[in-house]
Design a protein that fits this description.
18 strands, alpha/beta, 24% strand, 9 helices, Dna Ligase, domain 1, 3-stranded antiparallel sheet, single chain
């Protein structure tokens, strides 16, 4: 269960440690765009994206076009899967509803693509989210790790509980609150896209817990008293945003613990490690002791990067064995992460001269 971070003040002193981030900011987006381009398209800036997929003047129907600017708050690239189809004699009538079949087709196009975050530009039904979760789990099994940023808004705690049950371990953030960004009120999808953009700009080893959200100047707020939806969301490990300082218009993510019981940074770091592990270099090699040495070198290279250089994990403990003449097994026995501080005890002493 997520907790709201607290500070307790007593006497003495305390040292707070700094953080060292990594980086992973490629976002795949599935949505309706004002465009007839339907193949997977990579764009690296908002100007190019708008030139191909329309502008935000065509709001509402084209929910993918509607979030381009927010995703590029931090995305290094977008992989665009456009679900818009065109009908009529002149093919000038857009069909923008995301059906389960369109979702299935878009996911098939993204199979084994290299990206970090998956963003689907509308709130999904529980059935559709189950489809996405199944797909993400299969991708992870195939060593293509992605985590989803999800827009989700329900009217009751029970509805939230049912929807959260369809979300698996491949998740980076669940956004339930419409936000105001730099003074502009956003809808739920745009608000989730803001969070995806913020996350994409962060190092994989960074948590959002208790962090100021730069540019966020308002939100639909929850109370977290017992029985409130805000309290239920924290019980379900769904992040919520609240005001830290109304005079300065500062807003924070209370806790970025997610439904699988892990902080966002652990999910992203896990994905980064899996994606960085170049196990495919072993394919086609002779099954010999040299191959096992090569496997050890591959893991050691990743271990050096994420433990020594980026410091996103404390340690990786692993074992390499040969299952049979055709199979090398790399077992990451343990990924050792630091916990996230959710309580700071400020201690002080007074001396009167």
């Amino acid at each position: 269960m997520a907790v709201e971070p607290t500070i307790e003040v007593t006497e003495e002193s305390v040292t707070i440690q700094d953080r060292t981030p990594g980086m992973a900011g490629r976002i795949a987006i599935i949505g309706a765009f004002d465009s007839k381009v339907n193949n997977i398209t990579v764009v690296s800036d908002d100007t190019t994206a708008h030139s191909i997929f329309g502008t935000t003047e065509t709001l509402n129907a084209f929910k993918g076009t509607d979030v381009i600017d927010q995703l590029f708050l931090g995305a290094s690239e977008l992989l665009v899967a456009n679900i818009t189809t065109w009908t009529g004699d002149d093919e000038d009538t857009p069909e923008t509803v995301l059906t389960n079949q369109k979702l299935t087709d878009a996911l098939a196009k993204l199979k084994h693509e290299t990206f970090d975050l998956l963003f689907i530009a509308e709130e999904l039904t529980d059935e559709a989210q189950t489809m996405v979760t199944t797909w993400l789990n299969k991708e992870f099994k195939d060593k293509f790790a992605h985590s989803q940023v999800i827009p989700l808004q329900k009217s009751t705690a029970a509805a939230y509980e049912a929807s959260i049950a369809t979300i698996g371990k491949q998740v980076a953030y669940i956004n339930t609150q419409p936000l105001t960004y730099n003074g502009t009120s956003l809808n739920l999808n745009q608000s989730a896209a803001v969070m995806a953009g913020i996350i994409a700009s962060m190092g994989v080893g960074e948590s959002l817990t208790a962090k100021l959200l730069d540019g966020v100047t308002g939100c639909t707020e929850y109370t977290t008293e017992t029985g409130d939806i805000g309290a239920k969301l924290m019980e379900l490990n769904v992040p919520i945003i609240k005001c830290r300082n109304r005079r300065l218009n500062q807003y924070i993510c209370v806790n970025s613990m997610l439904p699988n019981g892990l902080d966002m940074y652990i999910n992203r770091s896990r994905d980064y490690i899996i994606n960085t592990l170049e196990a495919e270099l072993l394919l086609g090699q002779s099954s010999s002791d040299l191959t096992l040495e090569g496997a050890q070198m591959i893991v050691e290279n990743v271990r050096k990067e994420v433990v020594d250089d980026l410091k996103i994990v404390e340690d990786i403990i692993y074992e390499i064995t040969k299952e049979d003449s055709q199979t090398v097994v790399i077992t990451l026995t343990k990924l050792v992460f630091n916990g996230i501080i959710t309580k700071v005890k400020v201690k002080y002493s007074i001396e009167v001269q």
